[in-house]
Amino acid sequence: QKEVEQNSGPLSVPEGAIASLNCTYSDRVSQSFFWYRQYSGKSPELIMSIYSNGDKEDGRFTAQLNKASQYVSLLIRDSQPSDSATYLCAVKGGGATNKLIFGTGTLLAVQP
Amino acid sequence: GAVVSQHPSRVICKSGTSVKIECRSLDFQATTMFWYRQFPKQSLMLMATSNEGSKATYEQGVEKDKFLINHASLTLSTLTVTSAHPEDSSFYICSARDGGVGTSGNTIYFGEGSWLTVV
């Protein structure tokens, strides 16, 4: 089992719709969770971080965390063509480790 | 927000030569930096964790003698690809952990990445 799993997509949504991106992780003691956006040929850009169960909203983005189910998601409201990118879920291990473990990413395509 | 600068952004080198990539945290002290490699359409693969003033910790399968990492100061880490071969051609990305006073120590910022092409 991969440590961080994502559906590779592509996930295609029409402009203005809600895009829902999902991620599961295997390490139960993980405490920190991140969503990064990566445009083709560019470095990842941090979008959201979430540490507690529940929802965290920032503009059009909402991160949701359920530690019991080992599940974290990202919702993008009012999707725009400029949101088209690969979205990487990253999990920071529990304990003293500082390593971020990345999923393979989900390619999002927002259709105009 | 915090900025991590990586240089060069693109480099072409001949097979057998060495190339150095620099990673700098511009407005915070980074006690820990990470080096990743990313092949086309694949996810980021952690190569090593670099701690200021100590030896880097390499991930399994990464040759420490080929990928030399130096983290001499709190704002600079370097990756040197020695005796480069065409299969080393990849996108190399560094990141730095902002663990300064007043931070949660959880946020990791990425550099812009460096495209290495070995011909």
* Order of secondary-structure elements of chain A: EEEEEEEEEEE
Largest sheet of chain A: 6 strands, mixed
| Radius of gyration based on Cα positions of chain B | 14 Å
Number of helices of chain B: 0
How many E strands of chain B? Answer: 11
* Unreliable stretches of chain B: none
Main beta sheet strand tally, sense and closure of chain B = 7 strands, mixed
Helix and strand element order of chain B: EEEEEEEEEEE
Largest interface in this structure: A-B, 21 and 21 residues
Label the structural class of chain A.
Answer: mainly beta
Work out the radius of gyration of chain A. 13 Å
Mean pLDDT of chain B: 89
Strand coverage percent of chain A: over 45%
Descriptive report:
- The complex is a heterodimer of chains A (112) and B (119).
- Chain A is built from no helices and eleven strands.
- Chain A is mainly β and 112 residues long.
- By secondary structure, chain B is mostly beta strands.
- In chain B, 34% of the residues are buried.
- In chain B, the strands form two sheets. In chain B, strands 2, 4, 5, 6, 9, 10 and 11 form a seven-stranded mixed β-sheet that branches. In chain B, strands 1-3-8-7 form a four-stranded antiparallel β-sheet, with no helix packed on it.
- Chain A binds chain B through residues 32, 34, 36, 41-46, 49, 51, 88, 92, 98-105, and chain B through 6, 32, 34, 42-44, 46, 49, 91, 93, 95, 97, 106-113, 115.
Compact summary:
The complex is a heterodimer of chains A (112) and B (119). By secondary structure, chain A is mostly beta strands. Chain A is 0% helix and 54% strand.
